[in-house]
Amino acid sequence: MTPVNLIAKAIVKERSRAKMSLSALAAKAGVAKSTLSQLENGQGNPSIETLWAIASALDIPLSYLFETPKSEFVIVRADEGDHLASDASSLTSTLLADCPPSRRRDIYRVTIKNGSLRKSSAHPEGTVEHAFVCSGKVKIGPDDNLKELNEGDYFRFPGDVEHSYEALTDNSIYILIMESPV
């Protein structure tokens, strides 16, 4: 499913959930009814400002407009993801992972030297780890699903099983986010 089709499906679903007409949502979001209609039909190329306005009018987080069924394992390579460009500046954002309800996260910057291997025992049930490589190359994940990640790559995996982190280049740096049930 393309990002535009994903957005179209989400807008229709959320507008229906909110029991809003097309006209009411367009007015509340401050966008033209024709623009909203095109988006719901999977046409057009919305800016991040338009999507923020629609999400705000629907009283939902922006990430709801990009929801897809979640897999236990998700990997986003540096050149992948749904990119949103701003009309107002040269900003482009890529949603890597939204925070589901009833979760909490700790975020760490990790530096690891070439050849270093860090084994980790299982964390509490339901823990999920997110790794984003800032520089270097690392091998990360559960022992039965290790992934080699390059600079700019992202990997989500279960943290409630034994897993490891290994540097494959000098002074690799990655961001680690540990997400656990509240």
Question: What order do the helices and strands come in, and which of them pair?
Answer:
Layout: H1 3-17, H2 22-29, H3 33-40, H4 48-58, E1 74-76, E2 83-85, E3 92-94, E4 103-112, E5 117-120, E6 128-135, E7 137-142, E8 147-150, E9 154-158, E10 163-167, E11 172-181
Antiparallel strand pairs: 1-9, 2-3, 4-11, 5-10, 6-9, 6-11, 7-8, 7-10
Helix pairs in contact: 2-3, 2-4
Could you describe the 3D structure shown?
Strands 1-9-6-11-4 form a 5-stranded antiparallel β-sheet, with no helix packed on it. It has 4 helices and 11 strands. It is 23% helix and 34% strand. Helix 2 packs across helix 3. It has helices at residues 3-17, 22-29, 33-40, 48-58; strands at 74-76, 83-85, 92-94, 103-112, 117-120, 128-135, 137-142, 147-150, 154-158, 163-167, 172-181. It folds into 2 domains: 3-69, lambda repressor-like DNA-binding domains (434 Repressor (Amino-terminal Domain)); 70-182, Sandwich (Jelly Rolls), CATH 2.60.120.10. The model has no long low-confidence stretch (mean pLDDT 86). It is an alpha+beta fold. Residues 11-65 form the HTH cro/C1-type domain. It comes from Kiloniella antarctica. This is Helix-turn-helix domain-containing protein.
Number of helices: 4
The class by helix and strand makeup works out as alpha+beta
- Main CATH class of the largest domain: Mainly Beta
For CATH, the homologous superfamily of the largest domain is named as Jelly Rolls
The CATH topology of the largest domain turns out to be: Jelly Rolls
Query: Order of SSEs, N→C?
Result: HHHHEEEEEEEEEEE
Number of domains: 2
Assign an overall shape.
elongated
Task: Please give the largest β-sheet.
Answer: 5 strands, antiparallel
| Poorly predicted ranges | none
N-to-C CA distance: 32 Å
Shape-level CATH architecture of the largest domain: Sandwich
β-sheet strand percentage: 25-35%
Q: What is the average of the pLDDT values? A: 86
Q: In percent, how helical is the residue content?
A: 10-25%
Q: Order of strands across the widest beta sheet?
A: 1-9-6-11-4
Strand count = 11
Evaluate the radius of gyration.
19 Å
Domain HTH cro/C1-type: 11-65
Protein name: Helix-turn-helix domain-containing protein
Keywords: DNA-binding
Pfam families: Cupin_2 (PF07883), HTH_3 (PF01381)
